[in-house]
């Protein structure tokens, strides 16, 4: 494998924050810049993988040298991810997906009403990570098929407990816990500090370093856990 240890592997990475439209010019989104997902996609590309980047709203342009799929909302991202699962060896879900979207998407720009107050009704979005987990378990309760799945968990409190709970509920192989209240970590920064958990507990804590360095380490852990480092 040499310097291209992911050669022959097809990976799918999600990045950015989803945009949930209210009308043609207004939407709900979050602070994700896409940098973490970009770094993961770039690291995989440089290790020889065939990379598909499913990209929501991001601050900068996506990296070159990979397949780019635009997905504005959570629903579009769900579709873009699910149709590609059968041809994917690993999925990394670094995108910040909105948990809710406006119940009504207006066809034309909403008019200002007479009232001083406006209440927006929101409805729950599909959980993409959970849908992947369910897809993998289809057919047999015991056998897990399909790609190796890495989720993220953006947390501000009880980081470990919440991350491990998300891992089991969403049925992924690894979860990257991101304490976004920590200085230099999380949304918008060029650096990050994370803890990687597997079903058995903490796998590795990655102290504050560039998002690219976090991404390199993450792929090393994935290769090892997915059994991709074997003799070739
Ligand atoms: O983009 P940056 O500015 O570089 O910031 C990076 C980051 C903070 C966005 C990133 O490191 C991160 O933590 N991403 C996950 C953010 C998030 O949505 O966390 P969550 O705990 O709400 O969701 C947990 C997991 O479920 C995530 O993998 C998420 O993609 C997924 N999810 C969530 C909701 C939903 N409806 N569908 C999902 O698939």
Automatic annotation (TrEMBL):
Reaction(s) catalysed by this chain's protein: N-[(R)-4-phosphopantothenoyl]-L-cysteine + H(+) = (R)-4'-phosphopantetheine + CO2; (R)-4'-phosphopantothenate + L-cysteine + CTP = N-[(R)-4-phosphopantothenoyl]-L-cysteine + CMP + diphosphate + H(+)
Cofactors named for this entry: Mg(2+); FMN
GO biological processes: coenzyme A biosynthetic process; pantothenate catabolic process
CC cofactor note: Binds 1 FMN per subunit.
EC numbers: 4.1.1.36, 6.3.2.5
Keywords: Decarboxylase, Flavoprotein, FMN, Ligase, Lyase, Magnesium, Metal-binding, Multifunctional enzyme
GO cellular component: phosphopantothenoylcysteine decarboxylase complex
Record: residues binding CTP: 99, 109, 126-129, 152, 166, 170
Chain intervals for the UniProt region annotation (Phosphopantothenate--cysteine ligase): 11-232
Any one GO MF annotation of this record: phosphopantothenate--cysteine ligase activity
Annotated pathway: Cofactor biosynthesis; coenzyme A biosynthesis; CoA from (R)-pantothenate: step 2/5; Cofactor biosynthesis; coenzyme A biosynthesis; CoA from (R)-pantothenate: step 3/5
Domain DNA/pantothenate metabolism flavoprotein C-terminal: 6-223
The UniProt record lists the keyword Metal-binding: yes
Role according to the record: Catalyzes two sequential steps in the biosynthesis of coenzyme A. In the first step cysteine is conjugated to 4'-phosphopantothenate to form 4-phosphopantothenoylcysteine. In the second step the latter compound is decarboxylated to form 4'-phosphopantotheine.
Family: In the N-terminal section; belongs to the HFCD (homo-oligomeric flavin containing Cys decarboxylase) superfamily. In the C-terminal section; belongs to the PPC synthetase family.
Name of protein: Coenzyme A biosynthesis bifunctional protein CoaBC
Range of the intact protein held here: 183 to 414 of 425
